[in-house]
Give the backbone structure.
Amino acid sequence: MADDPTTRFTTPFKRLRDAISQVILGQTDLVDDLLVAAFARGHVLVEGAPGLGKTRLVRAFADATELSFGRVQFTPDLMPADVTGTTVFIEEADGDRRFEFQAGPVFHNVLLADEINRATPKTQSALLEAMQERAVTVSGERHVLPEPFMVLATQNPIEMEGTYPLPEAQLDRFLFKLKVDRPDAATLRRVLESTTGEEGEAPRGIVSRDEMLAMQGMLRSVPVASSALDFVVRVIDATHDHPLVRLGASPRGAQAMVLAAKGYALAAGRPFVELADLRRAARPALRHRLLLSFEAEVEGAESDQVVDEVLAEVAGATAR
């Protein structure tokens, strides 16, 4: 029915997914994850080797919405004021003098923090308040950011020289960490066909700003059963007890799982959350929130493996 709230979410979600998928080929799950995070009012860290389309993905998302877009290329010499803005002294021709705040690129709906781990910790920390409070404080004055607001950051996992690993406090502020995988042969052929000929026009304005705000509100209103919340609690607790984990997931990880599960449910046309939604959300919501032990590094274990083992353990305990 036209007034069905799930339809009011699912229809524009599919339009947006189809539009971005015209630009980002063969990455449907990645696009879905990014959109779910956006409608959950979350920030996303996109990790992948060079040339896999991380920046193109973020740009395609911004183009397909009516959201303002800002980009910062993070480098070692970048200063916090280059991100947040600064207060400058203005002297008019008529002799009037005043201090005026000049907004930085963070004052956009979508901020692309490209190669975020190339900036110093001091500059990285400039985003902490923005990501958590959706505001920045400059010269003692608080400035509220536009809504919706999300940081889409990219980083290269293999080029470590000249990079500064993100601190745990900042990683925890990302709702999702998404990994961009290498395309298979068939997808690579499609990429070559679509990118080495005449350039097509990217889809624009598929979802309006007001529509996006409304969809964010719909996602928050999706009910979650007590048994599903108990499942999330057990998963988070189990990450702390895993032998390869030095520090388990935070309460933000639990919140991320629940909010993302609501988005997956609505995207599938369901007005309620299933355990499958929570399991799907576990990897992107928790992989960057687990601090693995030295033994895990020696064994070559990765966070995704630990998350999968935790999910299997909790599912087995629930079945008994």
